[in-house]
User: Which sequence fits this backbone?
C-alpha cells in the first residue's frame, strides 16, 4: 500500500473508529475530516505532531502524564481505573490530531477530564509520550553511535544471518524495518535473550525421515500433512508427515545467545542505535508465511 | 535442540569454519580479559563466515541441474519462448487421470492475475496482482514466504494491479512493479535485496511483464504506450547490483537512425512503442529479440505522426551487453489499429521449407503469422491465421499491402481484426514434435474511428479459438472453437505444450483443458471457477510431473492420480 493510500485508508479507518467511539462516548463528535479542516482554517492544532520522535518532548510528556493521567490510566499507561492507553485504538492507530483533541477536550460525559490549562505544545508532548509507548516506529531515537553500530553489526557477525539494505545473510529475519515494528526494548531483548521468544518461521528443527535421512534447518511452515524446512545451504526440504519418524523442534533460538556477555554495554547501545535507524517503510514487515 | 555431546544448541552449524569460529568466541568469553579477545574472536567469525551468505549455491553441478527438464525457470520456461517442456509423464494416454493436487488462494484478492509461476527444484515462485509475491512448496502449495510490495503512489486511482511473474538467477528473483521499479528478492526468504527505479525522466505507467535474465543483465520494459505520453524503452540492469547498464529507447530521437520515419515535430516524444511483454534470447547468436507496442501519441489517428513510426509494432534484435540494435523488423508500419507486436517472438531451429534454419516465429496481433530468419531479420513468410481485412497480403520484401478502406476515419472504417487483435500478449507455444505453433486466436472485426473503435460491427459476433499453425506455410492445421460463454469475450489465456504430446489451454470463463497436440482432440478439461488470464506451465519434482495455472484469485496444480 502506498504512503498516500495508507493515509487515505488510515483516514477511512479512523473515521470508522471515530464513528464507533462517538457512539460510546456520547456527545463527543469531532470527526477526522473536520479536525483537518479546522487546522487548514488556522483555528485548530496542526494535523501532525510537530514533536514526533523528539526525545525531550517524550520526557516532558512523561512528566505531564505522571502528574495528570497516571492516577486514572496507571503509572505505565497500561490501565488502572481507566483504560489501557497503550492498547487504545486511538493511541495506537488514530491520527495525531484525533488524539490531540481527546486530550485537550476530554471526553464529555465520562471521567476523562479536559486539559484546558495546557499549552498546545504540552498536549503534543503528551501525544509524543503516548505514541512512543504504543507505536514502535515513534520511539524517540536511541542514543548511541550509529556508525559504530553499523560496523559492529558486520564485525560481530549479525550480518552473517541478518540482512540490512540488501546486504547480509538469510538465516535470520531481514532487519531493514525492525524499528518500525519493534521498540528498542524489544530489540534489546531479542539480542540479549534470543530464545525467550523465537519467531515463527525461524525455529530450529531436526527431522528424522522414515528412509533414514536426517534433515536439519528452520521450520518455515507445517500443517497436519506436511512440513517445510529451510536448510543452511539455502535449499528447502519438503516432507510429508507420513514420511517423518521424529520431528524434534528446539525451544532455543538459532541466534547465538552470548551477545550479552561478548558485547560491552556501549557496543550494545551502538548496535541498538544502528537498528533503531532501520525503519524502511518499503520493506514489508508482514512476514506472513502461512496460507490465508 | 542442544547437541547431546556439548549440551549446546547448533547455533551456526553450517560449516566447519563457522563452528570453529563460534568456539573461538566461546573461548574468548571464558577468560577474564574477554573484551579485546572477544573482539578478535568475533572478527574471526565475521571473516570466516561470509561463506554463510551464499552458502551452497555456486556449484556448477547444481546450475546444471536447474537447466534440467524438471524446472520451468522463466516466464516462457526458457529463452526460446517455445513454452515447450519435454516432460512426458502426463501424456495423451493417461491425461484422463489428471486431478487437482493443491490450490493456493491469493490474499489480498488482486484485480488481475496474469502470472506464470516459475519452479526450480521443487520450489514455486509466483506473483499475484501487481504487488504480491510468494514461494510455495510445489508439491503441497504450502507457503515458504510471502512478499507484499508496498508501492509508491502515482497520483490518484488504483495502479495497474497485475504482474506476469518473476525471473530468477542464482538466489535472486526479479520482479517489475506497478510503480516502475525492478526489485530483487532473496529466493530463500523473500526479503528485499534492492529496488531500482526504471523510469526517471518519464511518467510511470508500470512494469508489469516478467523480466528476462541474460547472463548478468536483467531486462525489462514498460507499459503505457496508449497513454499518449510515453516514449517506450527497454532497460537492462546489472543482475547483482541493480544498477542500470543501458536503456534503449524504442522511438529514436531526431537524428538517430529511424527518426526519418517520424515527422519533424515532437510526436516522437510520445511515440509509444512500449515493450511491455517479455522478449527471448538466442545465446549462439547472442541476440535478444524484443517486441514493441503500437505507436503514439494517438493510437487510431496517425495524422500527426506521418511515416512508419519506427520502432513501433516491431521486433528488435539487440545485443544484451550494450543494447546495440542489430536488426529490426516492423510488422505493422504506421499502425493505426492499436495492434501491438507484444506477442512472444518464438525462436525455433528447424528444417524450414527444406533447409535447416534459425527462425523467429510470431503470431501477431494484426492477425498474420510471421516467419523471419532470426540471424538477419529477413522476412520469410507472412500468412493470416485469423480473420483479417486490413492487408491484401505481405509483399516479399515484408511490407504489408494495405487495404485503404480499413484505415480509421472520421465516419469509421470497418476492419478485421478488431481492437483485440488476431491474438494478443498471452503466450503461444511451439512443439518441436509436431512442428505446430499453438495460438489463442480471435476472429473479430470492428469499426475504427480516429477517436476510438467499436467491436462486432458486421453482424457477426467475434469468435475465439485455439489454433495450431503449421510453421512451414502458416496454415491452420486444426482449431478448437470456444463455445457459449467463452465464444466471444476476448480470451487472454495462453498455451503450453509438452513432450507428452499435449497442448494445454484455457478460457476466460475458467476452463483449463488439454488437447492432443497433433490433432486438437480435447482430452481433458477442468473448471477452475474463475477467469483465466494467464498461461499454463509444467514442472516435475521427485519423479512426479505437475501442471499449473493461475486462475482469477488462485493457483491450481494438477498431477496424475497416483
Assistant:
Amino acid at each position: 500500500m502506498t504512503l498516500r493510500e495508507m493515509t487515505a485508508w488510515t483516514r477511512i479507518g479512523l473515521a470508522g473508529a471515530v464513528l464507533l467511539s462517538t457512539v460510546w462516548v456520547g456527545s463527543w463528535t469531532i470527526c477526522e475530516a473536520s479536525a483537518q479542516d479546522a487546522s487548514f482554517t488556522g483555528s485548530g492544532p496542526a494535523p501532525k505532531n510537530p514533536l514526533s520522535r523528539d526525545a525531550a518532548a517524550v520526557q516532558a510528556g512523561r512528566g505531564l502524564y505522571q502528574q495528570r493521567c497516571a492516577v486514572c490510566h496507571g503509572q505505565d499507561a497500561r490501565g488502572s481505573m481507566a483504560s489501557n492507553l497503550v492498547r487504545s485504538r486511538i493511541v495506537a492507530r488514530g491520527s495525531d490530531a484525533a488524539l490531540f483533541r481527546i486530550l485537550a477536550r476530554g471526553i464529555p460525559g465520562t471521567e476523562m477530564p479536559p486539559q484546558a490549562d495546557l499549552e498546545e505544545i504540552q498536549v503534543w508532548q503528551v501525544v509524543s509520550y503516548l505514541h512512543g509507548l504504543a507505536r514502535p516506529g515513534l520511539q524517540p531515537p536511541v542514543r548511541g553511535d550509529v556508525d559504530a553500530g553499523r560496523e559492529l553489526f558486520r564485525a560481530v557477525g549479525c550480518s552473517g544471518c541478518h540482512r540490512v539494505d540488501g546486504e547480509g545473510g538469510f538465516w535470520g529475519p531481514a532487519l531493514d524495518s525492525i524499528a518500525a515494528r519493534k521498540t528498542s526494548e524489544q530489540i534489546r531483548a531479542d539480542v540479549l535473550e534470543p530464545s525467550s521468544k523465537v519467531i515463527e518461521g525461524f525455529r530450529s528443527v531436526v527431522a528424522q525421515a522414515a528412509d533414514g535421512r536426517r534433515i536439519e534447518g528452520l521450520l518455515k511452515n507445517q500443517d497436519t500433512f506436511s512440513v517445510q524446512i529451510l536448510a543452511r545451504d539455502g535449499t528447502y526440504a519438503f516432507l510429508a508427515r507420513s514420511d517423518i519418524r521424529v520431528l524434534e523442534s528446539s525451544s532455543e533460538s538459532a541466534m547465538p545467545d552470548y551477545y550479552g556477555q561478548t558485547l560491552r554495554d556501549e557496543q550494545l547501545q551502538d548496535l541498538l542505535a544502528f537498528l533503531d535507524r532501520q525503519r524502511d517503510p518499503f520493506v514489508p514487515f508482514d512476514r506472513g508465511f502461512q496460507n490465508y | 535442540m542442544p547437541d547431546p555431546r556439548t549440551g549446546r544448541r547448533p547455533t551456526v552449524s553450517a560449516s566447519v569454519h563457522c563452528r570453529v569460529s563460534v568456539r573461538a568466541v566461546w573461548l574468548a568469553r571464558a577468560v577474564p580479559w574477554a573484551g579485546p579477545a572477544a573482539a578478535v574472536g568475533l572478527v574471526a567469525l565475521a571473516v570466516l563466515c561470509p561463506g554463510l551468505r551464499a552458502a551452497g549455491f555456486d556449484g556448477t553441478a547444481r546450475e546444471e541441474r536447474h537447466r534440467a527438464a524438471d524446472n520451468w525457470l522463466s516466464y516462457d520456461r526458457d529463452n526460446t519462448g517455445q513454452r515447450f517442456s519435454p516432460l512426458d509423464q502426463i501424456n495423451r494416454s493417461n491425461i484422463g487421470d489428471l486431478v487437482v493436487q493443491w490450490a493456493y488462494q491469493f490474499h489480498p484478492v488482486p484485480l488481475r492475475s496474469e502470472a506464470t509461476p516459475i519452479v526450480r527444484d521443487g520450489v514455486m515462485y509466483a506473483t499475484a496482482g501487481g504487488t504480491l509475491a510468494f514461494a510455495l512448496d510445489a508439491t503441497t502449495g504450502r507457503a515458504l514466504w510471502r512478499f507484499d510490495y508496498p508501492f509508491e503512489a502515482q497520483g490518484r486511482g488504483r495502479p495497474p494491479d497485475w504482474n506476469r511473474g518473476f525471473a530468477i538467477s542464482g538466489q535472486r528473483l526479479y520482479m517489475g512493479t506497478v510503480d516502475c521499479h525492478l526489485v530483487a528478492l532473496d529466493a530463500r526468504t523473500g526479503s528485499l535485496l534492492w529496488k531500482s527505479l526504471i523510469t526517471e525522466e518519464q511518467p510511470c505507467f508500470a512494469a508489469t511483464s516478467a523480466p528476462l535474465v541474460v547472463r548478468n543483465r536483467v531486462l525489462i520494459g514498460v507499459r503505457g504506450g496508449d497513454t499518449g505520453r510515453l516514449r517506450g524503452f527497454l532497460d537492462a540492469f546489472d543482475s547483482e547490483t541493480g544498477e542500470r547498464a543501458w536503456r534503449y529507447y524504442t522511438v529514436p530521437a531526431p537524428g538517430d537512425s529511424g527518426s526519418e520515419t517520424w515527422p519533424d515535430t515532437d510526436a516522437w516524444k510520445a511515440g509509444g512503442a512500449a515493450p511491455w511483454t517479455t522478449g527471448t534470447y538466442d545465446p549462439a547468436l547472442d541476440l535478444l529479440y524484443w517486441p514493441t507496442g503500437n505507436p503514439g501519441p494517438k493510437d487510431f489517428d496517425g495524422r500527426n505522426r506521418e511515416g512508419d513510426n519506427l520502432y513501433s509494432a516491431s521486433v528488435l534484435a539487440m545485443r544484451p551487453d550494450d543494447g546495440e540494435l542489430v536488426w529490426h523488423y516492423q510488422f505493422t508500419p504506421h499502425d493505426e489499429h492499436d495492434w501491438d507486436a507484444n506477442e512472444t517472438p518464438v525462436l525455433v531451429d528447424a528444417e524450414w521449407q527444406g533447409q535447416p534454419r534459425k527462425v523467429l516465429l510470431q503470431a501477431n496481433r494484426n492477425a498474420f503469422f510471421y516467419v523471419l530468419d532470426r540471424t538477419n531479420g529477413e522476412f520469410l513468410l507472412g500468412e493470416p491465421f485469423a480473420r483479417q481485412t486490413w492487408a491484401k497480403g505481405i509483399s516479399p520484401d515484408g511490407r504489408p499491402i494495405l487495404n485503404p478502406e480499413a484505415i480509421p476515419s472520421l465516419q469509421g472504417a470497418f476492419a478485421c481484426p478488431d481492437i483485440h487483435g488476431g491474438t494478443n500478449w498471452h503466450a503461444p507455444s511451439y512443439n518441436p514434435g509436431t512442428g505446430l505453433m499453438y495460438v489463442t486466436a480471435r476472429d473479430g472485426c470492428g469499426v475504427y474511428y480516429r477517436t476510438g473503435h467499436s467491436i462486432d460491427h458486421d453482424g457477426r459476433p467475434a469468435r475465439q479459438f485455439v489454433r495450431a499453425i503449421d510453421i512451414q506455410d502458416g496454415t491452420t492445421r486444426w482449431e478448437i472453437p470456444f463455445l457459449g460463454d467463452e465464444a466471444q469475450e476476448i480470451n487472454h489465456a495462453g498455451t503450453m505444450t509438452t513432450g507428452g504430446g499435449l497442448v494445454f489451454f484455457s478460457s476466460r470463463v475458467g476452463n483449463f483443458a488439454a488437447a492432443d497436440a497433433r490433432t486438437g482432440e480435447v482430452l481433458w478439461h477442468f473448471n477452475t471457477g474463475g477467469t483465466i488470464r494467464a498461461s499454463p506451465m509444467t514442472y516435475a519434482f521427485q519423479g512426479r510431473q505437475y501442471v499449473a495455472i493461475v486462475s482469477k484469485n488462485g493457483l491450481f496444480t494438477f498431477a496424475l492420480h497416483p
About this structure: Chain B touches chain A through 64 residues (CB under 8 Å).
